[in-house]
Amino acid sequence: MKEITPEIKKEIEDMILDYYAEECEIDRSEISMDADPQEDLGGDSLMFVELIEMASDKYDIDVKLQSVGKYMLKAPLKTMQDVVDVFCKIYQYGNDIVNL
Fold it and tell me: pLDDT exceeding 70 applies to what percent of the chain?
């Protein structure tokens, strides 16, 4: 298990917010952590998959989409804060996220 430092958490949050701002063509400052990634920002599930690939490459994380999917059945992503939180867990636990 990797340690999630405040710096890593901020990096992950910045990566996610920058990505959604670019892909959804909105100013990053307009993205609230309470915003629904799909309903409010116009995001989709493919964006989430791309983010997993980006995080896997950037942080050398071994995680399978099936593991993340099983976790998300228990903890759906309703806000941008949920997205950040799940990526912090992906960083920390990798495939073991399914056991949380």
Answer: 100
